[in-house]
Amino acid sequence: MTFSISKKITLGLAASVLLLNGCGKKAEVAAAVTIPDAPDAAIQTVINEFAKGNGGIIWQAMPTSYQTDVSYLLHLAGSKIDPELYDKSFATIARLAEVIDQQQALILNSSFMQGRSAEEMAQLEAALPSIVGLLGAITSSELASSTGLLNFNGQDFFDTTVSQLIQYAETLGQLAGEESMLSNYMNTVVTVVEADDLQATLLTTVPGKEPVEQAFSKVEQRWVPSEMASDWVAKIAEATAELEATSMQDIAANKPQMMGVLTMIDGVLAQIAAAETQEQFDQSLKGAMMPLMGLMMMGQGMGGSAAPAAPMPAAPVVAPSNIPAVQ
Questions:
Q1: SS3 state of residue 81
Q2: Could you tell me the pTM of the whole model?
Q3: How far, in Å, CA of 168 to CA of 5, rounded?
Q4: Is the pLDDT of residue 7 over 60?
Q5: Do residues 38 and 11 lie in contact, with contact meaning Cβ atoms separated by under 8 Å?
Q6: How far apart are CA 282 and CA 21, in angstroms?
Q7: Helices (H), ranges, 211-301
């Protein structure tokens, strides 16, 4: 088993967004950073702050209209869900994190782990606390409740939850033997190839790697990738249309099934949590297979969506890629 956590997992999480109280939803909030007007200095500032673990810089670097669009879409998503089903889904994920934390020893000695190398098992043992923390950061975030969606505050979310996700992603990436994502960003240098008041071509250089050129456009005093700027309106319209087309009748029709599966999973998690011996634990894991297969089958029957009560905007809407990809 290889726990290959991509160096870009943090941006992916921030994009998809889509997850215990131990992480602290009210983490210390970084002070607002002044983003310079010059394109190279602006992007350099965003990269450096991200490298320090400041997730709030991602939101701060977005044009005001982009922030408004993202907030609107998440508020709209909040109005298009079944609150009971949505909240129970995330409560189940939070319970899963608690059980993983509680039963780490039994997980590592489970018969399901037979055949794994000593190196892989050591990697898993080291990763489990961060996996628990990662799940906890998500399930304690605004996106984990219907009320949170309706009252989503972008700067708060990125200051706290995204900052936590950055650190967990960094830890998991290093445990997987990957290069440090944050060190790469910290050592990145941005220079201007050519620029005017509204357009710029920037060269992003990481020591030991090939420099990368990328076009940026100035939108409302913020520099964003030109590709994002040209696609933004269309992507927002597409995501809005998808959310507006969400059928509350379909959600209501599928709710009893989904609630039944979640109740089954909660029951299995209770059994796993209660296990005191390895035999009891392994038997409980076997019992988890049926409800999980049922959940996947329902997802396929619903057009591939296993969470019809939780419509969310498409990833590009909440993935302000102001930070150039650092390989």
A1: coil
A2: 0.78
A3: 10
A4: no
A5: no
A6: 28
A7: 226-244, 248-274, 278-301
